[in-house]
């Protein structure tokens, strides 16, 4: 997200932010795109037992990931700080993925 100058950002997020100006047809297209992305992420998280370490079901995690990445694109525009974006991403992973070995008291 921060590699180019100026940063390219996220086309879907930029479009969604301007959804009032672009009209209902484009809103629907962005909605379909985001729902397709959610489905792809959920499917990937469901493969080969990967969901055993997730804090929630894959479809719920996918919704959070898509919402988070859209918000991360906005944060990049405001802060232009790769470390901040990385730290936010690490925090999300900590919330969504359970440690492989939890110590039981």
| Contiguous runs where pLDDT drops below 50 for at least 5 residues | none
The run of helices and strands is: HHHHH
Outline the biggest β-sheet.
Answer: none
What distance separates the N and C termini? 42 Å
Strand content: under 5%
Q: Into how many domains do the coordinates divide?
A: 1
**Shape, principal axes of CA atoms:** flat
Mean pLDDT: 84
Helical residues, percent: 55-70%
| Structural class by helix and strand composition | mainly alpha
Radius of gyration in whole Å, from Cα?
16 Å
Compute the number of strand runs. Answer: 0
Number of helices: 5
What does this structure look like?
- By secondary structure, the chain is mainly α.
- It has one domain (11-96).
- The protein has five helices and no strands.
- Helix 3 (24-46) packs across helix 4 (58-79).
- The longest helix has 23 residues, at 24-46.
- It starts with 10 loop residues before the first helix and ends in a 9-residue tail after the last helix.
- The model has no long low-confidence stretch (mean pLDDT 84).
Break the fold down into its secondary structure elements and pairings.
Blueprint: H1 11-17, H2 19-22, H3 24-46, H4 58-79, H5 82-96
Structure at a glance:
The protein has 105 residues and is mainly α.
Keywords:
single chain, about 100 residues, mainly alpha, 5 helices, about 70% helix, about 0% strand, flat
């Amino acid at each position: 997200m921060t590699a180019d100058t100026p940063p390219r950002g996220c086309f879907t997020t930029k479009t969604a932010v301007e959804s009032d100006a672009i009209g209902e047809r484009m809103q629907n297209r962005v909605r379909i795109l985001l729902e397709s992305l959610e489905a792809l992420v959920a499917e990937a998280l469901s493969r080969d037992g990967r969901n055993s370490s997730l804090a929630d079901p894959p479809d719920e995690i996918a919704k959070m990931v898509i919402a988070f990445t859209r918000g991360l694109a906005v944060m990049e525009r405001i802060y232009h700080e790769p470390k901040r974006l990385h730290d936010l991403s690490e925090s999300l992973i900590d919330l969504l993925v359970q440690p492989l070995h939890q110590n039981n008291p």
